[in-house]
Amino acid sequence: MDDFRGIADRIALDIARGRLRAGQRLPPQRAFARRHGIAASTAGRVYAELVRRGLVVGEVGRGTFVRAAQAAPQGRALVEDGAAPVNLELNYPSVPGQSELLAPALAPLLRPDALTDALRPAAADGTRHAREAAAELLATGDWRPDPGRILFTGNARQAIAATLGSLVRPGGRIGVEPLTYPLVKEIAGRLGGTLVPVRADQEGPVVESVLAAHRSAPLSALYLQPTLHNPTSVTVPAERRIQLARAVSDVGLPVVEDRIWSFLHRGPEPPLAALAPRLVHLVDGLSKRVAPGLTAGFAVVPEDRVEAVAAAVRSGGWSAGAFALEAAVRWIGDGTVARLVAAKREQAVRRQGLVREVLDGFAVRSDPSGYFAWWELPEPWRADAFTAAAAARGIAVTPGTAFRVDPKRTPDAVRLGLASAGEPELVGALRTLAGLAAQRP
After folding, report:
1. What gap in Å lies between CA 226 and CA 284, rounded to an integer?
2. Which residues span the domain enclosing 42?
3. pLDDT score for 16
4. CB-based contacts of 272: which residues, under 8 Å, 6+ apart?
5. Which of 181, 227, 277, 424 would bridge with 262, disulfide CB 3.0–4.6 Å?
6. What is the CATH number of the domain that holds 390?
7. In terms of pTM, does the model score above 0.85?
8. What is the pLDDT of residue 57?
9. For 84-128, what is each residue's pLDDT tens digit?
């Protein structure tokens, strides 16, 4: 059971993120205790801790309310008053001149005759030109996907939802890494499925753990991020990929391979889809390569599952827009996407250098080519407490609890997204966080 400080940390995080607003009344302590499965005396200690931190105020006869203004943090201020908020939680890369690069391909689509067609929804399999362009974009090494097995969604998240939705029925089990993309947890809940964590080491998912989970009760699917895993940055080496492909092929286990960050990685590791094409559903998208506002998602699916996944796309209302698909075809064809990818690769390398410089001496795991870092916090910090303290200083980070699958294993770590903030703001935020981590909670 959580101690009272851990529960207070979570309430503090809700206040910092605005889920509990200024002036909002907290439930009576007995109701709070029932809701959280704790003793009434523990609830009293939680409320007392929140009062001590200056986050809530008790009014006799009325109850306990979120304060209209938080008390200043104890100790030396780490940021100037009025400093602009810095979001290291969102992670959408952008580079200088990006809009100027994207605009020319859109101009022909804005003619009234072209716009009429472009504003219609696209079929799940897009167009022949879109399939060929996507195959060219996703090709890597000796592997180029069959255009006839490519489907389109509005974004990569929808591609994940469609592929998993086509595989998992209520009560189904989905194998995942111990830390996984939070969206997959949401999708599993909507499908009535259960996430089953498989053991992972420094090279990614452990093959025997995958097989053991499947033997204990058949898995409906295995969801993996083998290249630049979010949040740990692990890239599964080629030999482990071959072992995984053989294992899933031996037991007939479908795989959803998420490659959304793979465009940053220059390594020779083949996609799992190249090693087990009859089982692997590869998903990717344009949001990270290009921009989140006008994007498309891709799913390369086994030949015999094209219609099943297409049906899931249609039933979910996840079809890509024709305008976005046509824009994507043009951006891929004229080299815009390639230029953006090159610029974002260089930017990611620079920002990783800033992390190494500012957070030197801390336990930070990252890849030199990635846009995020996994920071294992020093004792006695806990993830939710650190996240709340960072938010109080105007910096948003993602607590490790957002990625955990097993609720009994709580990582005292945070993920830093390096893509959305400007580099001067990123440096300032990292310095603030380093100073915060050096203090006691």
Report:
1. 13
2. 4-66
3. 77
4. 224, 226, 241, 244, 245, 255, 257, 280, 282
5. 227
6. 3.90.1150.10
7. no
8. 81
9. 589 999 899 999 999 999 999 888 888 887 777 777 778 999 999
Is the distance from CB of 369 to CB of 345 less than 8 angstroms? yes
* pLDDT recorded at residue 220: 98
The strand ranges marked E within 377-435 are 395-396, 398-399, 413-417
Angle at 419 between CA 418 and CA 422, to 5 degrees: 90
Domain end, chosen from 334, 369, 391, is at 334
Quick one: tokens of 177? 């890494």
Residues 131 and 12 in one domain: no
Q: Are 175 and 221 in contact (CB under 8 A)?
A: yes
Is the distance from CB of 302 to CB of 149 less than 8 angstroms?
A: yes
**Which stretches in the chain have pLDDT values below 50?**
1, 69-83
Residue 49: the pLDDT is 83
Task: Please list, in sequence order, all residues whose beta carbon lies within 8 angstroms of the beta carbon of residue 111, skipping any fewer than 6 positions away.
Answer: none
Are the C-beta atoms of 70 and 22 separated by less than 8 Å?
A: no
pLDDT at 17: 72
Closest by CA position to 79, among listed 441, 437, 436: 436
125 and 20 housed in the same domain: no
Domain check: are 296 and 344 in the same one? no
The tokens describing 336, both together, are: 């815009």
pLDDT at 60 (0 to 100): 63
Q: pLDDT value at position 74?
A: 37
Beta strands 413-417 and 372-376, pairing class: antiparallel
